[in-house]
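Q: My labmate handed me this sequence with no annotations at all. I'd like to see what the chain might look like in three dimensions before we decide whether it's worth expressing. Could you predict it?
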Amino acid sequence: MSYTVGPAAQIPEGEALRVEAEQSGASEDIAIFHAEDGNFYALQDECTHEVASLSDGWIEDCEVECPLHASRFDLRTGKVLCLPAYVDARTYKVEVVDGMLELHF
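A: Here is what I predict for the chain of 105 residues:
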């Protein structure tokens, strides 16, 4: 399933946008990040360590740091990079099509 989020230009480089994606009656918040490498990446918005929004975290290079306890995740793979989190974040495909962000979940 895919969802048109809106113009890619709405997310400045180094920022993130939280979107609510619905599939089969269930919804999940997904964070779309515009990384410093110029690419867009999407992860589950909730940190795998404790309830905190990754879209509110700090983005550096291709990593996001959780604002609650400073766990870091690789935006490209969802891999956890440091404790206290130890479970990887789910990733989603996001692409720019004719200037619009398309999220696939």
